[in-house]
């Protein structure tokens, strides 16, 4: 086979793929519509994004860098200024009681 013949085959396959997709998509959509009607689903039932995870309460800063004043809540990646160090030394609550 030469290049032009392969291109012609590719074009024919693309046409067949598009036709098969159209036929199968129409059948799938008809089935979905039937299921929605059978069970009485609403748009919200079908398309709503239910959140399964509870969102954490927003907490204020728990640690402060005395040099820059930068704060960190203790959640997520450790900032470089506290990484590998004793967190108690940077605790905001601990500092409130020292005064």
Automatic annotation (TrEMBL):
<feature type="domain" description="DNA-binding protein H-NS-like C-terminal">
    <location>
        <begin position="53"/>
        <end position="92"/>
    </location>
</feature>
<dbReference type="Pfam" id="PF00816">
    <property type="entry name" value="Histone_HNS"/>
</dbReference>
<dbReference type="InterPro" id="IPR027444">
    <property type="entry name" value="H-NS_C_dom"/>
</dbReference>
<protein>
    <submittedName>
        <fullName>H-NS-like DNA-binding protein</fullName>
    </submittedName>
</protein>
<keyword id="KW-0238">DNA-binding</keyword>
<dbReference type="GO" id="GO:0003677">
    <property type="term" value="F:DNA binding"/>
</dbReference>
